[in-house]
Amino acid sequence: MINNFFLQEKFLILAYDHGLEHGPSDFLKKEFSPDFxxxxxxxxxxxxxxxTPGVAEKFYPKFQAEVPLILxxxxxxxxxxxxxxxxxxxxxxxxxxxxxxxxxxxxxPGSRYESLMFKEFGRIKEEAHQKGLGxxxxxxxxxxxxxxxxxxEIIKYAxxxxxxxxxxxxxxxxxxxxxxxxxxxxxxxxxxxxxxxIALAGGKKLEEEEFLELVKSAMESNLNxxxxxxxxxxxxxxxxxxxxxxKIIFKENEII
Length: 256
Hints:
Blueprint: E1 11-16, H1 18-22, H2 34-43, E2 48-51, H3 53-59, E3 69-72, H4 92-97, E4 102-107, H5 114-130, E5 134-139, H6 152-165, E6 169-172, H7 182-192, E7 197-201, H8 208-220, E8 225-228, H9 230-233, H10 238-250
Parallel strand pairs: 1-2, 1-8, 2-3, 3-4, 4-5, 5-6, 6-7, 7-8
């Protein structure tokens, strides 16, 4: 049986797995230390925080009573420019040891290596469920076969892949191009992938009002929440930003 984390219907998950994927570029203007991020997560009572294994092992233990952990099991650097592939470098056993509530795994449908990642994801999903952990899939179509990874039709396909592979929660991007209605688009996503929880990726830092409108459109369309990093901890006042997002996701009188 999976732990109670996925009994929730709404989520605000604070992401801090950028260092491996992006290098130091997201940390140049201010020292966004792991302690600083975990302090934000614990004080503002977010649903969970996403960490890579090294950061989790070194910094999470003193915060584990304050905020649930999602351990990201795979990832890649930004150095290699070939067909994307990202296999696990950490285990479900480590996630269990760190008292994580879930594991995270990025998939790149469209890559020539998608079958390898699908196979590994399936094994991890089964093992995680046996140990009582949930599984979150980052579904990011990418590779030579994908001309535009944030094309609306590509994102729709991505959401369905998460359902087909059996993830408990899937993280998808939002479309880059102007579409008639973001709310209508998200409503279609919801219909395409029934009975799986769906969270929207925060992505690159946007203007505050633009990001809050994005969150509002997602939640009005019955998506389940947001997984955001830079749009929170790169703000001048990340605490205030979390409060604004929580009012949209959970409504004023609800408690995480």
